[in-house]
């Protein structure tokens, strides 16, 4: 599974904003990889940041 897919799936399952470290822990992915994927997902406008350092699905 692609890292971006894992992040989107994790955010969808939890249903509330999460920190990058929490996403990495739930998805069993390295935090550095999650940070890169989050940056890409924000550029694609698939996720949003409702408050600093927290991310949620749009």
Query: Major β-sheet, in short?
Result: 2 strands, antiparallel
CATH architecture: Orthogonal Bundle
- Name the average pLDDT: 94
From the alpha carbons, calculate the radius of gyration and give it in angstroms. Answer: 10 Å
CATH topology heading: Arc Repressor Mutant, subunit A
Indicate the overall shape: globular
Total number of β-strand segments?
A: 2
Strand arrangement within the widest β-sheet reads 1-2
Please explain how this structure is put together:
With 58 residues, the chain is mainly alpha-helical. The protein has a single domain (3-57), classed as Winged helix-like DNA-binding domain superfamily/Winged helix DNA-binding domain (Arc Repressor Mutant, subunit A, Orthogonal Bundle). The protein has helices spanning 3-14, 20-27, 31-43; strands at residues 47-48, 56-57. Strands 1-2 form a two-stranded antiparallel ribbon. Strand 1 and strand 2 (56-57) form a beta hairpin. Helix 1 (3-14) packs across helix 2. It is globular and about 25 Å long. The model has no long low-confidence stretch (mean pLDDT 94). This is HTH domain-containing protein. It comes from Clostridium cavendishii DSM 21758. It holds the Pfam family HTH_11. Residues 5-44 form the Helix-turn-helix type domain.
């Amino acid at each position: 599974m692609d890292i971006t897919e894992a992040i989107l799936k994790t955010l969808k399952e939890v249903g509330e904003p999460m920190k990058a470290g929490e996403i990495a822990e739930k998805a069993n992915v390295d935090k550095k990889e999650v940070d890169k994927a989050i940056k890409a997902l924000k550029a694609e406008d698939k996720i949003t940041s409702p408050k600093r350092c927290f991310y949620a699905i749009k």
